[in-house]
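Re: weekly structure request thread

Next one in the queue (422 aa):
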Amino acid sequence: MPEKKTLEEILAQPKSVEELGIPQNLLIDILLRLLYTEGYVDFRRMSQVMRVPHALEQLLDWLRKEHLVEVSQASETYGPLNYIYKLSGPGEDRARESMERCQYVGPVPVPVRSYSEAIDLQTSGSRSVKPEQVKEALSDLVLPDDFHRKIGPAVNSAASLFLYGPPGNGKTTISMHISQLISGTEPIWIPYAVTAGGQIIQIYDRLFHQEIEREKGTIDGRWGLFKRPSVVVGGEMKIESLDLRFDPLANFYEAPLQLKANGGVFLIDDFGRQQASPIDLLNRWIMPLENGVDFLRLRTGQTIVIPFRALIIFCTNLDPYNLADEAFFRRIQMKVGIFTPSEADYKRIFHRVCQQTGVFFDESSYEHLVDKWYRKTNRQFQAVHPRDILTIVQALCNYENSEIHLTQELIDQACEMYFVKK
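Done, posted below.
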């Protein structure tokens, strides 16, 4: 078995086609498809798209000798790096054949083994997030004083986290704050695409991957430096989203959600309300949670093994034991209940939202709200209520073109519009 490489060795800029670690035909096909779709392409453009400048020089020499590519325009002043290339007749024929097999045009993929090794190296061990950082990340929320002790260990160990409790008390908000905290830790190197079994799997997704500026130099251009990804899904998620998605028109694969989240956070909000049953989803997660690896199957039948190194957060308003059994919850190391705030905490939340929205806190109006709309109706406090009620108060004031303020009358109007009558 070959020795494992260091991260620096994996990310080292390849100087030749051989050092790319992929079949030469795969590289040739990407270049031919680029020339086929864009027509006349200079070296700078090829390098910008494929991100392997040193290997390109060698490849273009070979393609010219094979009469697949021609120099359309040369520059004696600036040399080969400014040549403009086009396909020859035989080159067009081969490019059309390549387009029928696959239409991927983009950064040259890295071998899936290199990806797995790099993710392992960048996610091994615990994070070094300190209690002060966790408390700062949650500082704009009204939570129990020691709440950070329930969240911090999960963040540092990259273990799974299950947040449960009645709706409207901040589970999603807390999860998003955790995601932002992890996103702000040490960035991660991720390839734009990987190859396995002769197939291309695109990992980069502009929705989830925020690239960080870096100096050009000795790093393999097929890898980008990104903030730790944060993938958030809700009730729209299907179980198919957790498997490789093959595009039958473009003939290449898109990475599943958990692969895009590797090294960061995968948040499943409203767990139990997805289009797949909770049991099916939980069964899909048992092996990755247990072993830290995931198994993905290509259409050819080949199975590839990928590291599963995301902090997965389940959020639910439903009774946890209506979703899964004790065996599954043993695999989720940390469970945190987020329950209704006390009356004292509710007042703190209301006061803080007033400060954030610029609404003057009026004590008599607040007492009227609590007495009429909570005590007398036996309504439970929810952490989300102050924000929503004050938003309606602002809308009422704006509608009447009056200064935004708080009165008992406005509180009643807002609550009548907000709460559903029984």
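The chain has three domains: 23-107, 112-337, 343-418. The CA atoms of residues 242 and 331 lie 19 Å apart.
Next request, please.
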